[in-house]
Specification:
InterPro entries: DHS-like_NAD/FAD-binding_dom (IPR029035), Ssirtuin_cat_dom (IPR026590). This protein is an alpha/beta fold. The chain has eleven helices and nine strands.
């Protein structure tokens, strides 16, 4: 049996599925503006690239801009891209086809909100924050979340000469501190929403822990294995009816303790899911 057929078999046999996804999932879907000066990145960020020469939005986070006003213009343009550009490949549609009607929960360190565009929000845990909101830089008295979409709609048209006017820089309604992106600031707010995202995952595990659980990991890299990969390994080890699958073109690996209950697929995530989707469709038409 080849690995594609084995993947389909394990999904079919599972009572419940937990999908864990990292940045490789976004890259597989063609969202290649994070770490490179791709055509998609250059289409929207040519001014900032020409001036500062950083490649990809992620590198822009750590660039020292000439002014706070220019930095805000960069952030607003970045948010417009992240929130509005659709996946360039049907990777998430392929994943839907693979999961079918199985009970499923998605755990992701991605902040790009893509999972919530394809699956119900109560099935998704964004455990490292989301680009959906900003927060106050001073969280001692303000633990509100501020809508990114509203901010972009209101402020991006006000940007002039690649700068947001100083008086328009968003501030907390409560203590006047400047707003920061919740997913990227060192003051990351571990507030109500943060705990709710983890509680959704915990509840799903509690509801299905006596069943046959498939842990399906995709695109988790070496930067943050402690949030998804290592918990998946540990839970597979202790839940004897469980199985672990890792799809990753760069880092398809497992823990030796669960090697006999692991399937490693070191190929492009989109291409794997595309082949899976085609096979399932073919079987449905038989």
């Amino acid at each position: 049996m080849n690995k594609i057929d084995e993947l389909i078999k394990h999904v079919k046999e599972a009572d419940a599925i937990i999908v864990g996804a990292g940045s490789g999932m976004s890259n597989a879907a063609g969202m290649d503006f994070w770490y490179s000066a791709s055509p998609l990145f250059m289409k929207h960020m040519k001014y900032f690239y020409d001036k500062y020469h950083f490649e990809g939005i992620f590198n822009g986070f750590y660039t020292r801009f000439d002014s706070k006003e220019e930095h805000w213009a960069f952030m607003l343009e970045s948010l417009k891209m992240i929130l509005n550009i659709p996946p360039q490949k049907p990777t998430y549609e392929y994943l839907k086809k693979l999961i079918g009607n199985k009970p499923v929960h998605f755990v992701t360190t991605n902040q790009d909100t893509l999972f919530k565009k394809f699956f119900p929000s109560d099935q998704v845990s964004e455990i490292q924050g989301s680009w959906d909101y900003y927060q106050a830089s001073d969280t001692s008295t303000d633990q509100k979340l501020y809508s990114t979409k509203k901010m972009v709609a209101k402020l991006l048209p006000k940007v002039k000469d690649h700068c947001l006017p100083t008086e328009l820089i968003p501030k907390s309604d409560i203590n006047g501190s400047e707003l920061i992106l919740g997913a990227r600031g060192p003051q990351f707010l571990e507030g109500k929403r943060y705990f709710e995202e983890h509680q959704k995952w915990n509840k799903f595990m509690a509801d299905h822990r006596s069943e046959k659980i498939l842990f399906l990991e995709m695109g988790v890299g070496r930067m943050t294995p402690m949030f998804i990969q290592e918990p998946f390994w540990k839970m597979t080890q202790y839940l004897k009816n469980s199985f672990y699958i890792n799809i990753n073109p760069k880092d398809a690996m497992t823990n030796p303790m669960i090697h006999d209950r692991s399937l490693l697929i070191g190929d492009d995530i989109n291409e794997v899911l595309k082949e899976v989707s085609a096979k399932i469709k073919e079987k449905d038409n038989d």
